[in-house]
Amino acid sequence: MMRRVPVLLLSALLALEGAPSKLKIVVLEGQGAVNNLRQRTAREPVVEIRDENDRPVAGASVTFILPESGPSGVFPNGSRIVTTVSDEKGQAAGLGLRPNRVAGDFEIRVTASHQGRAASASISQTNAGTPPSRIPGKLIAVAALLGGATTGVFIARGGRGGAGDGKATRPTLIPGTPEVGPPR
């Protein structure tokens, strides 16, 4: 029986030696970042993929995944998912990240794989601030019409708001439907 224990131990060690080692994802940039909604700028996530001996792993497939709803963002391809390959330093980045218009905290999921080994991590970020308001096109058109009508009334009254008699008077706005035509 004493002879069997070392043989079992040896076979267990050999089995572990043949098993693929794990990868590790180290977050270099983007953890705890606050993205500016008004300027639509975000801190791009940058990670380094390392092996079990803490050496950089080049050529690993790295995927960055943003939440589908709520506070989130998009990558330049318009998607919430982007996949890249780690460089010779083992580094990969989610380039071109832009925040969406929803304020709050969110997690970027990161996965990496290389030669049968895999790892995952999360990067916490926050979208903050108030996104710029959008002025509807119809409102701009109405404002332009009203501004044009006011200018027309001013010009029609001799440029001084009066009847053109040389007296300085205040411009007068006449309510109603704006009309375009020659001065009356």
Keywords, separated by commas or semicolons:
2 domains; alpha+beta; single chain; 10 strands; elongated; 3-stranded antiparallel β-sheet; 2 helices; 5-stranded mixed β-sheet
What does this structure look like?
The chain is an alpha+beta fold and 184 residues long. The protein folds into two domains: 21-128, Sandwich (Immunoglobulin-like); 135-184. 19% of the residues lie in helices and 30% in strands. It is built from two helices and ten strands; from the N terminus they run αββββββββββα. It has helices at residues 4-18, 137-156; strands spanning 24-29, 33-36, 46-50, 61-65, 73-74, 81-85, 91-93, 98-99, 104-114, 117-128. A hairpin with a 2-residue loop joins strand 9 (104-114) and strand 10. The longest helix has 20 residues, at 137-156.
Briefly note the structural class of the backbone: alpha+beta
In CATH, the topology of the largest domain is named Immunoglobulin-like
How confident is the prediction overall: mean pLDDT?
A: 79
CATH class of the largest domain: Mainly Beta
CATH structural architecture of the largest domain = Sandwich
Give me a quick take on this structure:
The chain folds into 2 domains: about 110 residues, Immunoglobulin-like (Sandwich); about 50 residues. About 20% of the residues lie in helices and about 30% in strands. The chain contains 2 helices and 10 strands; from the N terminus they run αββββββββββα.
